Amino acid sequence: MMRERRVSRKKASERVNLLAGMLENDLQSDEINVSPERTHHPEMHRLRVRIRDSGKSRTEDFENVDYIRAGREQTSDIRFVSRFCSRSQFEIFTAEDGYYIRNLGRTNPTVIMRNGKKRVLTERPCLLQDGDVLHIGDVRLEVEILWEVRAWE
């Protein structure tokens, strides 16, 4: 299922300010990690999410979408039926170096499993990686990220 979503100027401005703050923190640290994606320009990006929600499974693909909102709301790009999910649970957005996820749910935590370790997401963005597994109560999401890149000319 392909979806296109327009983002309000306020939301876009909030994300730009958030990313500027993250960049400022990177510049203040002693080590600056430059990932391979930062030296390439993405031609196409796709996020595939395999969802298991209340006993039912489905897969959703998002191609060249820069903002995805997940929750129980009717307007969510990824919609949950589980009562363990908030109306606005989390958002995923793209930046120069990949996809970031930020928790929006106040009462229901989003837990990310990566390399056998659990981490509870906060409002601070976290870089989403291929193979990450998200848990919200009884809901499980498996993330697959596909990038097609070309070198700068």
What can be said about this structure in brief?
With 153 residues, the chain is mainly β.
Molecular structure report:
This protein is mainly beta and 153 residues long. The protein has one domain (9-29, 44-151): Tumour Suppressor Smad4 (Sandwich). It has 1 helix and 11 strands. The strands form 2 sheets. A 6-stranded antiparallel β-sheet has the order 2-1-11-10-7-8, with no helix packed on it. Strands 4-3-5-6-9 form a 5-stranded mixed β-sheet, with no helix packed on it. A hairpin with a 2-residue loop joins strand 1 and strand 2. The longest helix has 20 residues, at 9-28. The chain starts with 8 loop residues before the first helix and ends with a strand.
What tags apply to this protein structure?
Tumour Suppressor Smad4; 11 strands; 13% helix
Radius of gyration using CA atoms only: 16 Å
Task: Compute the separation of the termini in Å.
Answer: 34 Å
State the CATH class: Mainly Beta
Q: Biggest sheet, open or closed, and with what strands and sense? A: 6 strands, antiparallel
CATH architecture: Sandwich
What is the residue-averaged pLDDT? 77
Order of helices and strands: HEEEEEEEEEEE
> Within the largest sheet, what's the order of strands?
2-1-11-10-7-8
Strand content: 35-45%
Number of domains: 1
Q: Supply the number of helical segments.
A: 1
| Structural shape | globular
Uncertain residue ranges: 23-41
Broad structural category:
mainly beta
Kindly report the CATH topology.
Tumour Suppressor Smad4
